[in-house]
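Morning run. Coffee first, then this:
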Amino acid sequence: MLNYFHLNEERICIFIDYHNICLFPLQAKIVLDIIATTFSEYCENQFTVEAAEVVFPNGKSYTFPELAYRKEMVRADLINKKVGIRETPENLAKLLTRMYLKSEVIGDGNQIEIEIPPTRADVIHACDIIEDAAIAYGYNNIQMALPKTYTIANQFPLNKLTELLRHDMAAAGFTEALTFALCSQEDIADKLGLDISATKAVHISNPKTAEFQVVRTTLLPGLLKTIAVNRKMPLPLKLFEISDIVVKDSSRDVGARNCRHLCAVYYNKNPGFEIIHGLLDRIMQLLGVPPGEKQGGYVIRASEGPAFFPGRCAEIFARGQSVGKLGVLHPDVITKFELTMPCSSLEIDIEPFL
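And here it is:
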């Protein structure tokens, strides 16, 4: 860590705290090299740096700053190919020299030897040298050309459907939220009245905090937590999110799969079940799914769920399969998420509608 530096007429003294240098040796050396070379210009003897011996707790001693130079070899034809230009090796060497990378042509006339100073710690790979050559040449000076491989880009159908639904959900008066994909076990299990083993949740092997223990299996907890920190906002609060959830799946090579879900929550002094029900009808209208079981339509049937108030829950069936649930949340769920007013929610899987 740099504590401070002292400037006088004779020398610049840079005081470095090496207490934690063992934790970040490379970064500390880079910072020290750059600071030392920068201020060395203002010394009485320009570009002169006085080294210091540093003794580590393990007894080993090192001399800092190192100010190490290194050399790299890059072929001129490789630079021309990657950048898309036709320059001689001599011209390329001049371009790199302009970028503080002293270069010269050696060997068979196609090899360029580049000397990398300690002030260019950003040059790690040959691609960094090629990038500097392109910058010195000027991106606007590179002649445009059609790619050799002709392809037509197309949006992923699921993402296209997601974007279309986002616009219409906003038009229905709901505000989009973007919540964390990781959450705690309590959020997806205990607070919703479920057992963690029944959620098919993917667990993080080494979670850093209790808030990021598993991958979410439902979007509902994230929206409820968002409402909890925005309780002072004017009512009603109408939020939605369209994102992926992850569940275990032994048939997949990775043991899990993503599902794109749509979740909406209505929070007000009254539950507003009719608001959520009307939103479902609007979503199905947009998806081209008619009401009724015939002709691949959709219906809702009375159901039960630990997260919902008894008698105020319904399961959604579309095209012959269950795609989600809607209903009024149980008071225990509302209380556990630190909410004080009734709330209704809707969550469906939108992938079957592609």
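The longest helix spans residues 25-39. Good start to the day.
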